[in-house]
Automatic annotation (TrEMBL):
Alphabetically ordered keywords of this record: Cell membrane, Membrane, Transmembrane, Transmembrane helix
Top-level division of the source organism's lineage: Bacteria
Secretion signal, residue range per the UniProt entry: none
Species of provenance: Paenibacillus tritici
Keyword Electron transport: no
Transmembrane feature ranges: 85-108, 114-133, 265-288
Protein name as catalogued: Type II secretion system F family protein
Pfam family, one: T2SSF
Length: 290
């Protein structure tokens, strides 16, 4: 088994060096592309060549589509193909490191556990990375949904007080300028920047809806675009009806998050219960034996 691990380790190292020489500075431009969670960019650059020339994406089209779609929702449509390539390179980098580490451990200790564990983790970790990516998208959508009713209430109050829709949105964004990290207000700031850059109200609003990629935001956008020219009581009334619907959805998301938080506490409570049983039962058993 040790000589097999030695051959695997040698092939992994030689393959990486060969790909490193082949790719050169081909992916140097991707180093400046902003993307959270990437820690192995330099190590993964040779593996990007393997992804492209090996056409790995063509073997798993549905998985690749879901990954690219999730990255588009997190970072936008621009450079989505490049970010998908970087994400695949990161996955392969971790798998390469785990296989190499497991082979080296088996080679040093002579135990097969290292190779087996490295192989299992090399498969499990990329799956966990994809799952975590989809989870980030769900959390982003929930955060937008939780904040959207508050924004809508503010817009209703300002429009009812005589402000135009555009001025009301700008005032809401300026009042929450410290929340630029929040996905909803980050997209709203991009929308106001598009207004300043010459985009029309309708075009900027449609771009905002596409970037958010949330059904409730699309409903909000459609309601505003259909009614903002009319103004008056009809417009405020339509926004209030939408606000009531969004508040109900916000309550449902809050209940879901509460149930998820309580379910996460089950395992620690079971562990604490077992520890208490051991602490209480051990002295009693010792006394019975005496």
């Amino acid at each position: 088994m040790s000589w097999i691990c030695g051959v695997v380790l040698l092939l992994l190292a030689a393959g990486w060096l060969f790909l490193r020489m082949r790719c050169g500075s081909r992916y140097a431009a991707l180093r400046e592309l902003s993307m959270e969670g990437l820690r192995l960019r330099r190590l993964g650059e040779p593996l990007l060549l393997l992804v492209e020339q090996g056409r790995i994406a063509s073997y798993l089209p549905s998985v690749m589509f879901r990954i690219q779609r999730s990255l588009q929702r997190l970072y936008g449509m621009r450079y989505s193909a490049e970010r998908t390539l970087l994400f695949l390179g990161e996955m392969l980098s971790y798998s390469w490191l785990l296989l190499a580490g497991g082979s080296a451990l088996t080679l040093l200790t002579g135990e097969q556990t290292g190779m087996i564990l490295g192989g299992l983790l090399a498969v499990a970790l990329p799956v966990a990375m994809v799952s975590d990516l989809h989870k980030k998208v769900r959390v982003r959508e929930q955060n937008i949904m939780l904040e959207l009713p508050e924004l809508l209430n503010s817009i209703v109050l300002l429009v009812g007080a005589g402000e135009t829709v555009q001025r009301a949105i700008i005032r809401c964004v300026n009042s929450r300028h410290g929340d630029s990290a929040h996905p909803l207000y980050a997209e709203l700031m991009k929308m106001t920047a598009e207004w300043d850059g010459g985009y029309s109200f309708q075009q900027a609003f449609e771009n905002f809806s596409k970037r958010c990629a949330v059904q409730e935001v699309s409903i909000f956008t459609t309601t505003v675009l259909l009614n903002y020219r009319r103004g008056g009581a009809d417009f405020v009334l339509s926004l209030r009806d939408l606000s009531r619907m969004l508040w109900e959805k916000r309550k449902a998301i809050s209940r879901t998050r509460g149930e998820q938080a309580s379910s996460k506490l089950v395992f620690p409570m079971v562990v604490i219960f077992l520890i208490v049983i051991v602490l209480v039962g051990t002295p009693a058993l010792m006394m019975l034996k005496m």
